[in-house]
Fold this protein.
Amino acid sequence: MKYHLKIFASALSLVLAGCASFTDDGGFGKVADLTKERTGQTARWQRSVSDTEAARNRVDELMRQPLTADGAVEIALLNNPGLQARFAELGIAESELVRAGRLANPTFGFGRLSGGGITEIDRSVLFNVLGLLTIPVASQVERQRFEQAQYQAASDAVGLAADTRTAFFRAVASQELLRYYGQVQDAADASNELARRMVRAGNFNKLAQMRQQAFQADASAQMARARHQSTADRERLLRLLGLPGDASALKLPERLPDLPREPLEPKDAEQTAMDKRLDVQIARRNTEATARALGLTKATRFINVLHIGYANKSQTGEERQNGYDIELELPLFDFGMGRTARAEATYMQSVHRTAEVAVNARSEVRESYSAYRTAYELARHYRDEVVPLTKRISDENLLRYNGMLIGVFDLLADSRDQVLSVTAYVEALRDHWIAETQLQTALTGRSPGADNPVYRPRAGASAASGDAAH
């Protein structure tokens, strides 16, 4: 009877093992959906040569035309090697899920003794019965970890999209500013050259000429800084796009997109962050997984190791003896209190971290919206007030110059002021688009100021359940 029970237990373990299998897409479908919902672009996991080839062809197609913010995000999601490496965490998490749904391999024992013409042979096969009993709970814990890995992968993709969009706006603005600083440089060079000639002709005093020279020197320094900033911003964009080529290969638009007619007015922004933000979802699921791991730890507190299996013994000239072996670790010195205390502390740590993420998310939404509205109002102020005003002043000074009421140096100085007001508007417009990107990230993605994901799962939950599952 006992022998039949052991066969039944073995068969049951095989059935359970058959239920745990790998998915066709490695769980990436959910990651793609979460990413598209928040960025408008679909992320792709390159798991084969054909996937890599398809991604490369799409990137080449996008690079043959002037880049847009959406195009840059699509390239980054397709081509960024760091993101593809982080997507591999899904494969690791899925392998742990499959392993948790399968019983540990049985242990086979064999012994042979001989002497005095008698040979004695012992054989045994042991199964981890405790592992069989805890497979449903352990599988559920690993499934939650797998879901955490999916949300983490989506968070990485959304974060990369936000970084890429920000880098795109910076690169376009730097390129545009470089042209305007070039105009300032040209005006300063012309003013300085005219002043030098007039000094040689005796029509200009030395002090006034040195002032023009000082302005020309300052314009040269600004131009050098603008040139480097443009190169640095393009290179950063290239890195995010995963492109190893020269920065000149990027075909950026000539100017930033125009300011929208009306600012964004998100409704129930804080509640949206609680429902949609991926870092909040990750922290919440991490706490749930840790709670389940705590329950598993308590359930196996006193029975640490339990093996049961079939055994037989044969001896020369004697009938073979059959039976079974049971191995049980007795809790004489370790009653499991240390593991339980550790699991409880890990759970409370996870609870407080989740609360911290939620509090920070609400605050970051409010702060990001304030920054967005400020950037929008400033850009609109420069567009509607400052730039038109400097244009009217320039037109008036041109009339005064034609009437010989002001000199050429006054006209050149006014031209420089007009260019500087335009550069200030470009900077304000750049800040607006960056602030809008950060607001969208704060609403549905993660902390807009985070270079890395706010909270990494697995560390806490694995510590709580690792001891219990083995």
Notes: The first strand starts at residue 107 and ends at 115. The longest helix spans residues 135-201. The beta strands are 107-115, 118-128, 306-315, 321-328. Confidence is low (pLDDT under 50) at residues 1-5, 299-307, 450-470.
